[in-house]
Design a protein that fits this description.
Number of strands: 13
Structural class: alpha/beta
CATH topology of the domain at 4-184 and 234-264 and 305-311: Rossmann fold
Number of helices: 11
Distance between the termini: 34 Å
Bound molecules: nicotinamide-adenine-dinucleotide, uridine-diphosphate-N-acetylglucosamine
Strand order of the largest sheet: 3-2-1-4-5-6-11
Largest sheet: 7 strands, parallel
C-alpha cells in the first residue's frame, strides 16, 4: 500500500506541484487546505494528472479538530507543510496575521502530529531567512537575520522544528529553503495563479506577454549587478517538487533532520528573464524602468551543494524551460483556474 503524505496547502502553487511529484514517486497525497489562496478546481486537475482520487480536507491548520480528523483515519508517513501566507509586503502591513497563520499554524500542526505519532515533516522555508547577504552564494551556515515579518516567522518555525526534534529523537524534519520557484507543470494544467496584480516577476511577465498588462516595470536599473537589474536564483517548480520527494527519502533513510537550500546555484537578472520569456513565448514583453522596490536585495543565489550531497538532488531544468512551461500555463489558462 502506498505511504500517505498529508500535504497542507496542497492546492496552492508549490503544494499542488508537489502532490503530482509525490504521486509520481508512489506516495498517496492527502490535501488539507483552507482555500484562503487557492481554488477547489485545482483538485480536479490534480486527480486528472495523477489518476489518484486525492482526498481534500477543507480546513485550517490552526484547527486541532480538523487536524485530528485528517491524521486519524490512516497511518501518515509524513506531513509536507506548505500552508502559509507568503507576501512579504503584506507581512509588513499585517505582521500579527502572518505570525498567527504561519507560526501558530505550524505549532498546532506539530502538536497534532505528536498526538498521532507522525514523525516526519517537510517544511517550506525560504531564502529570505538569510537577510542581507554577508557573502554570496548563500550557504546554509550563512547568518540567519531576516529583515521582514514573513522571514522572521519562517526563522521562528525553523527554530521551533529544531527544538521539537531535540526533544523527540523520533521526530525529523527537512527545512527546505526555497529560492525563487517559477514555471508550471509541463501539461499546462496546473500553475501559479496569483490573485489580483502579481507581485512576483514571472507571473507579471507572463501577463504582459499575453497582452493582459501593457508593460513590465523593472524595479531598479542601477544595482551593482552585471546589467544593473536585480539578480535571483529562479528554480523550476517541478525541480522544487521533486526535491521534496528527495527530502522525504532522506528523512526515511537517514533518520536525522536537515536545513537545506533549494535553488539552481545560479542567478539571472530581470532583463535576462524578460529576454528568455520573449524567446519562449514568441511575444514581446515591453518594459519601463521604475525606482527600486522597497525591501529588495540587489542579488542573491544559492549554494546548492548541500542538497546535491545530502538529498542527491540537483535542479535539472534551466531558464528556457521555466519560461516555456510558465508560458504554456499562461496561454492555456489566461484567467487562471476558473
Ligand atoms: P500559495 O499561497 O499558492 O499556497 C499556500 C496554500 O496554503 C494555499 O492553497 C492556501 O489556501 C493554503 N493556506 C494558507 N494558510 C492556510 C491555513 N492556515 N490552513 C490551511 N491552508 C492554508 O503559496 P506557495 O507559493 O505555494 O507557497 C507554499 C509555501 O512555500 C508557503 O509556506 C510559502 O511561504 C513557501 N515559499 C514560497 C515561495 C514562493 O516563491 N512561492 C518561496 C519560498 C517559500
Ligand atoms: C520575493 C520575496 C521573497 C520570496 C520570493 C519568491 C520580497 C522582498 N521577497 O522575492 O521573500 O521568497 O518573492 O516568491 O518581496 N521585479 C521587477 N518587476 C516586477 C516584479 C519583480 O522588476 O514587477 C524584480 C524584483 O525587483 C526582483 C526580481 O524581479 O529583482 C524578482 O522579484 P520577485 O519575483 O518579486 O521575487 P523576490 O523579490 O526575489
Amino acid at each position: 500500500m502506498a505511504a500517505t503524505v498529508l500535504v497542507t496547502g496542497g492546492l496552492g502553487y508549490v503544494g499542488s506541484h508537489c502532490c503530482v511529484a509525490l504521486a509520481h514517486a508512489g506516495y498517496e497525497p492527502v490535501v488539507l487546505d483552507n482555500l484562503s489562496n487557492a481554488r477547489e478546481s485545482v483538485l480536479e486537475r490534480l486527480r486528472e494528472l495523477t489518476g489518484a482520487a486525492i482526498e481534500l480536507h477543507r480546513a485550517d491548520v490552526r484547527d486541532a479538530g480538523a487536524l485530528d480528523r485528517a491524521l486519524a483515519n490512516r497511518p501518515i508517513e509524513a506531513v509536507a507543510h506548505f500552508a502559509g501566507l507568503k507576501s512579504v509586503r503584506e507581512s509588513v502591513e499585517r505582521p500579527l496575521d502572518y505570525f498567527d497563520n504561519n507560526v501558530n499554524g505550524t505549532a498546532r500542526l506539530l502538536e497534532a502530529m505528536a498526538r498521532h505519532g507522525v514523525r516526519r515533516m517537510l517544511f517550506s522555508s525560504s531564502a529570505t531567512v538569510y537577510g542581507v547577504p554577508q557573502r554570496l552564494p548563500y550557504t546554509e551556515d550563512h547568518p540567519l537575520e531576516p529583515v521582514n515579518p514573513y522571514g522572521c516567522g519562517k526563522l521562528a518555525i525553523e527554530r521551533m522544528l529544531e527544538r521539537a526534534a531535540a526533544a523527540n529523537p523520533d521526530f525529523h524534519y527537512a527545512a527546505l529553503r526555497y529560492f525563487n520557484p517559477v514555471g508550471a507543470h509541463p501539461s499546462g494544467r496546473i500553475g501559479e495563479d496569483p490573485r489580483g496584480v502579481p507581485e512576483n516577476l514571472l507571473p507579471y511577465v507572463a501577463q504582459v506577454a499575453s497582452g493582459q498588462r501593457p508593460t513590465l516595470r523593472v524595479f531598479g536599473k542601477d544595482y551593482d549587478t552585471p546589467d544593473g537589474t536585480g539578480v535571483r536564483d529562479y528554480l523550476h517548480v517541478m525541480d522544487l517538487a521533486e526535491a521534496h520527494v528527495a527530502a522525504l527519502r532522506f528523512l526515511e533513510r537517514e533518520h536525522r533532520s536537515i536545513a537545506v537550500n533549494l535553488g539552481t546555484g545560479r542567478g539571472h537578472s530581470v532583463l535576462e528573464v524578460v529576454k528568455a520569456f520573449e524567446a519562449a513565448s514568441g511575444r514581446p514583453v515591453p518594459i519601463e524602468f521604475a525606482p527600486r522596490r522597497a525591501g529588495d536585495l540587489p542579488e542573491y543565489w544559492a549554494d546548492a551543494t548541500l542538497a546535491a550531497q545530502e538529498l542527491g538532488w540537483r535542479a535539472a531544468r534551466g531558464l528556457e524551460e521555466m519560461c516555456r512551461d510558465a508560458w504554456r500555463w499562461q496561454s492555456q489558462n489566461p484567467d487562471g483556474y476558473v
